[in-house]
Hints:
Layout: H1 2-23, H2 27-30, E1 35-39, E2 43-47, E3 52-55, E4 59-64, E5 68-83, E6 86-97
Antiparallel strand pairs: 1-2, 2-6, 3-4, 4-5, 5-6
Amino acid sequence: MANTATNGRRRKKRYKTLLVNLFGLPREVLLDLPRLVMLGNSRMVVENHKGLLEYTEETVRIKTAHNGEIRITGRGLNLLYMVKEELGLAGRFLRIEWPGGEE
Length: 103
């Protein structure tokens, strides 16, 4: 049963990738990929997130689709807002990590 579900997800991802390539659509929209927009070194918008895993003044870990995460380290990190699929951060960003980054 699990193998059938995995095959179904792979097939669905293949179709979405085909649509992205065929019509020139933004990958983050159809493939549920996160999009980071930096405004200098003090503001950031993260789109297509799946929630916070950790939030302190030095570290913010953001859950992404497909069991991924983005880790932001810095000083004075502050969550400005968080809505369903977008969040805003402020502070001094020192490092952004995307372990095992998604396609």
